[in-house]
């Protein structure tokens, strides 16, 4: 065979056309195996020069774009995409406003009924001795419900994105994602549950100046045990939901986060009430039980840390994911302080049943939106990549709610679910004779105003925060949802307390009298 220069001259002299072959076509059906040079031989067995054009496709964007984009195939790195990419994971259908609403509606209602049940439980247990004599438990309620939301919704957002971009298609990848993420949320739940108890002790001590070591240990044991058990149960449910929705062709971003909260508030509040009540009864006869329970769950921390460190997908979050959940816990604890001070007044005892509902609905809706925007941005590259889809300046309300892109469309759909959803939940509470509240027209007007204002603020903040974090090389799946759900707790509790105080001042006393 002649040398390469001689080949080139011979083919040019004979007028032969040199083949131009994309690099994707040089890959044989066996993954990772290049086609041998002998496959490109001329008619006489002589070599033919092959001009290779590199074709790079953003596999992440290609796999996920059909889930959210309606503008056809896009690629982040090149306009030249090869149609011979091999099998890809099944993508959800392209979404319209109707399809978004239809997919979100059922999980939204399911989650809402879960918050209604949690409100009914809180309305009952607020009269238990442990809530009467250790009132700091009220401060733990938004903190632990928010912690559950932060961890489970962040887990749901991470796994939804991983499922949409094909990182959970093989059993090995699936198992690695499950074990790493479950270990990670156990570490976060234990640590943040412990810190939440400290915050409850401090917030309870500052106004009254009274401190009890027995009550402090009780709060620590109750908080850590509740956070650990609730995260374990809800994490397993969440993984099953995401795998099932992916196999059914449903976008996990639309259903995972609401279903994460459907039983989450109820399970967490029931665990907190039961555990704190049981430990309170043991204070007099078996004082050693409370510190023993606290020490047991903290002693398990090294095991979960080792498992999470072995997984590359969770190692970074293990080191850098503490700031959002800790700050979110502090924000939710402020909401808990507002709840504690409000329901302690017999005139506002009816607020207890509505607090988990308004906070849960707002948190669920904004978590769906944050997860969708994060998935949308992941199609354009990696966090920190400069892109037109990730503006760094503060967006205008018009671009958030009234533009033609898919995220603005989903924001409108989620906002329109607020009024009908809350009407259903209020009717459910009233029909079950929950709380100490009569649903007068003026009460419904004030309640709906607070709920709409809460969701409006949260959706706008989500649009800004997710893009802001993306532009600063932070993965929104790990960082945005804790802040948003905590702000939902604070804004929801604050607006609800304000509504009850205004109703009391203007004389609508039938809406908020206690027993």
Automatic annotation (TrEMBL):
GO terms for biological process: metal ion transport. Keywords: Ion transport, Magnesium, Membrane, Transmembrane, Transmembrane helix, Transport. Residues 60-94 are annotated as: Disordered. It is a multi-pass membrane protein. Its main location: membrane. It holds the Pfam family MgtE. The keyword Iron-sulfur does not apply. One of its GO terms (molecular function) is monoatomic cation transmembrane transporter activity. Residues 141-275, 355-498 form the SLC41A/MgtE integral membrane domain. The chain crosses the membrane at residues 104-124, 182-204, 216-243, 255-275, 287-307, 319-339, 411-429, 441-461, 481-506. InterPro entries: SLC41_membr_dom, SLC41_membr_dom_sf, SLC41A1-3. It is found in: Membrane. GO terms for cellular component: plasma membrane. Belongs to the SLC41A transporter family. Acts as a magnesium transporter. This is Solute carrier family 41 member. It comes from Syrrhaptes paradoxus. The gene is Slc41a1.
């Amino acid at each position: 065979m002649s040398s390469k220069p001689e080949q080139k001259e011979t083919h040019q002299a004979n007028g032969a056309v040199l083949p131009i072959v994309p690099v994707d076509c040089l890959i044989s059906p066996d993954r990772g195996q290049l086609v041998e040079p002998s496959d490109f031989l001329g008619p006489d067995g002589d070599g033919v020069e092959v001009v290779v054009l590199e074709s790079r496709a953003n596999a992440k964007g290609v796999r996920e774009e059909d889930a959210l984009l309606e503008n056809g195939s896009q690629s982040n790195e090149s306009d030249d995409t090869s149609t011979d990419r091999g099998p890809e994971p099944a993508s959800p259908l392209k979404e319209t406003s109707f399809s978004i609403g239809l997919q979100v509606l059922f999980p939204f209602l399911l989650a809402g009924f879960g918050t209604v049940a949690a409100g009914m439980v809180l309305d009952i247990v607020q009269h238990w001795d442990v809530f009467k004599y250790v009132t700091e438990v009220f401060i733990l309620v938004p903190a632990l419900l928010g912690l559950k939301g932060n961890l489970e919704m962040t887990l749901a957002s991470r796994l939804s994105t991983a499922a949409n971009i094909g990182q959970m298609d093989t059993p090995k990848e699936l198992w690695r994602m499950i074990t790493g993420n479950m270990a990670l949320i156990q570490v976060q739940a234990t640590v943040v549950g412990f810190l939440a108890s400290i915050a409850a002790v401090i917030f309870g001590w500052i106004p009254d100046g009274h401190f009890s070591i027995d009550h402090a240990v009780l709060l620590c044991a109750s908080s850590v045990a509740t956070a650990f058990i609730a995260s374990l149960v809800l994490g397993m449910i969440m993984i099953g939901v995401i795998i099932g929705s992916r196999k059914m062709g449903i976008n996990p971003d639309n259903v995972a986060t609401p279903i994460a909260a459907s039983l989450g508030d109820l399970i967490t509040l029931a665990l907190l009430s039961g555990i704190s009540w049981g430990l309170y009864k043991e204070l007099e006869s078996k004082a050693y039980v409370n510190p023993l329970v606290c020490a047991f769950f903290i002693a398990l921390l090294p095991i979960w840390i080792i498992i999470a460190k072995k997984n590359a997908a969770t190692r970074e979050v293990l080191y850098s994911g503490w700031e959002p959940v800790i700050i979110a816990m502090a924000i939710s604890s402020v909401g808990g302080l507002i709840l504690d001070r409000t329901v302690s007044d017999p005139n506002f005892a009816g607020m207890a049943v509505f607090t988990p509902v308004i906070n849960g609905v707002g948190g669920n809706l904004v978590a769906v939106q944050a997860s969708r925007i994060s998935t949308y941005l992941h199609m354009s590259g990696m966090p920190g990549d400069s892109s037109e889809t990730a503006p760094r300046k503060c967006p205008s309300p018009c671009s958030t709610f009234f533009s033609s892109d898919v995220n603005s469309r989903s924001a409108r759909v989620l906002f329109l679910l607020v009024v009908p959803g809350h009407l259903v939940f209020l009717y459910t509470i009233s029909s079950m004779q929950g709380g100490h509240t009569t649903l007068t027209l003026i009460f419904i007007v004030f309640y709906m105003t607070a709920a709409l204002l809460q969701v409006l603020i949260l959706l706008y903040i989500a649009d800004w925060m997710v893009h802001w974090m993306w532009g600063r090389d932070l993965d929104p799946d790990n960082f945005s949802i804790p802040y948003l759900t905590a702000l939902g707790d604070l804004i929801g509790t604050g607006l609800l307390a304000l509504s009850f105080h205004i109703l009391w001042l203007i004389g609508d006393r039938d809406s908020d009298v206690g027993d």
